[in-house]
Design brief:
By secondary structure, the protein is α/β, with parallel strands linked by helices. The chain has one domain: NAD(P)-binding Rossmann-like Domain (Rossmann fold), CATH 3.40.50. The chain is built from 9 helices and 7 strands, in the order E-H-E-H-E-H-E-H-H-E-H-H-E-H-E-H. It has a 7-stranded parallel β-sheet, sandwiched between helices. Strand 6, helix 8 and strand 7 form a beta-alpha-beta unit. Helix 1 packs across helix 8 and helix 3 runs parallel beside helix 5. It is globular. The protein binds nicotinamide-adenine-dinucleotide. Nicotinamide-adenine-dinucleotide binds next to helix 1.
Length: about 250
């Protein structure tokens, strides 16, 4: 694969799959704009990529819930590298876990602001980024937006309802809508929806018919393929990458 001369924005890029994607895209010669709220780790990871001397990286502190910060990330990408070829929305997670609220309380007993966070980061963030970067991609007459869904978007979760609600919005409504808008501007949109991924060890407890969770690398390889020359006809689709869990059901 070769991404020389291409630029990708990755959100949630200080950790997990957002980071791994940025590292891989740069390893294949591309430039990366790494967005996250965790400034210290972000700086460290940006430096590591630049020290390797392949593609260049810049870090932008960006809370995806804030449209002004999202537009700033877009502007910094264009100023640094001249185009936005790929935009991947990795920032996300279940609010109860991400905000350390725990899983004991019943859904209606969890304060609503917890779920506001989940809906905003997981759904509004990608919506904001779509609105911001499509302006640039329309001007370029090219681009690819990749949303990251989840098996939970298809299954639901009675305890953490923000997460499946938001992910289903990405997997079906937002991804299809962007691809419809983008068609006449040579812009594609694809959603990649993993089952359990070992960005943390607890994910090994989530069942799949294959008896294991995915290595983060397996998800990133699919994303790189979609972004590469070989993946150019993939558009408007939600692709599950879950070891067969969606086919088998959650109690597989
Ligand atoms: N790990 C899994 O098993 C799994 C399964 C299905 C889907 N996913 C999805 O994949 C994506 C990446 O997951 P991961 O496990 O690699 O993530 P992670 O938890 O390792 O990293 C998430 C990153 O997002 C950043 N972040 C949090 N709030 C933010 C905000 N408001 N603005 C910008 N950045 C913010 C965090 O600082 C962190 O660096 C998420 O959208 C997740 O929902 C993960």
């Amino acid at each position: 694969m070769n991404f020389v001369g291409k630029t990708a924005i990755s959100t949630g890029a200080a950790s997990g799959m957002g980071l791994l994607f940025a590292q891989n895209f740069a390893e294949f010669g591309g430039n990366v704009v790494m967005c996250d709220v965790n400034e210290s780790v972000l700086d460290e990871k940006v430096k590591e990529i630049n020290d390797k001397g392949n593609g260049k990286a810049i870090g932008v502190v960006c809370d995806v819930r804030d449209y002004v910060q999202v537009c700033n990330a877009r502007d910094q990408a264009v100023e640094a590298f001249g185009s936005i070829d790929v935009m991947v929305n990795f920032a996300g997670g279940t609010a109860r876990r991400m905000l350390n609220v725990g899983w004991e309380a019943d859904f209606p007993d969890v304060p609503i602001n917890v779920f506001d966070w989940g809906l905003d980061v997981n759904l509004k963030g990608p919506f904001y980024f779509a609105h911001a970067v499509l302006k640039q991609m329309r001007e370029q007459n090219s681009g690819l937006i990749i949303n990251i869904g989840s098996i939970t978007g298809a299954e639901g979760d009675g305890r953490g309802m923000d997460y499946p609600t938001a992910k289903a919005g990405l997997m079906y409504g937002l991804t299809k809508s962007i691809s419809q808008y983008g068609a006449s501007h040579n812009i594609r949109c694809v959603c990649v929806s993993p089952g359990p991924v070992l960005t943390r060890s607890a994910m090994a407890n989530m069942k799949t018919p294959m008896g294991r969770a995915a290595e983060p690398r397996e998800i990133i390889d699919l994303i790189l393929f979609i972004a590469s020359e070989k993946g150019q006809f993939i558009n408007g689709e939600n692709i599950m990458i879950d070891g067969g869990r969606n086919a088998a059901g959650r109690n597989c």
